[in-house]
Amino acid sequence: SMNVFLKHWLTPTCMALVNDADRVWNQRLDQMNAALASQNLPIRFEGMQTIWTLIYQNPSRFNWMFQYYLRQHGIALSWVGTGRFIFNFSYTEDEFQHIVQAVVNAGHDMQRGGWWTIPAGMTAAKVQKQMLSELLLHSTRRA
């Protein structure tokens, strides 16, 4: 019942967990981004506590493929998008470090595959324009 749930969350242990959550998850966000930057991987995270968004720093039409490299390393993303991470509130430090290593390893695999190689002169706007023109060309051919 709701009463049992609320009584549980009002225990000193749970209250301490909630009160410390901002510090813990901000520190973890910094750790993840530092690990990615130190490996020269073109991704970063932004987030609030346990809800993070993956930010791709390079223009690419293939960023969506990163979810499959993550899956190879044991991270399955939600169906709501390829950039949403919702962490379990009670992850231990060891469990979180496993996630960091899995994201870094998936990033290296994606990079080795050449999916983040930027052609000379390519910008995010050019990628978007190119994809839109191809979509329009394809849709007019089918009509």
Report on this structure.
By secondary structure, this protein is mainly alpha-helical. 57% of the residues lie in helices and 10% in strands. The chain contains five helices and three strands, in the order ααββαβαα. The protein has helices spanning 2-9, 12-38, 66-72, 93-112, 124-142, and strands at 43-48, 51-56, 84-86. A three-stranded antiparallel β-sheet has the order 1-2-3. The protein is elongated, with a radius of gyration of 19 Å. 12% of the residues are buried. The model has no long low-confidence stretch (mean pLDDT 84).
Question: What's the short version?
Answer:
It is built from 5 helices and 3 strands, in the order H-H-E-E-H-E-H-H.
Structural class: mainly alpha
Q: Provide mean pLDDT, rounded.
A: 84
H-E string: HHEEHEHH
Give the strand line-up of the largest sheet: 1-2-3
- Strand portion: 5-15%
Distance between the ends: 56 Å
Q: What is the helix tally? A: 5
How much helical structure, as a percent, in the residues?
55-70%
Largest sheet: 3 strands, antiparallel
Shape: elongated
Number of strands: 3
Work out the radius of gyration. 19 Å
Residue windows where pLDDT falls under 50 for at least 5 positions: none
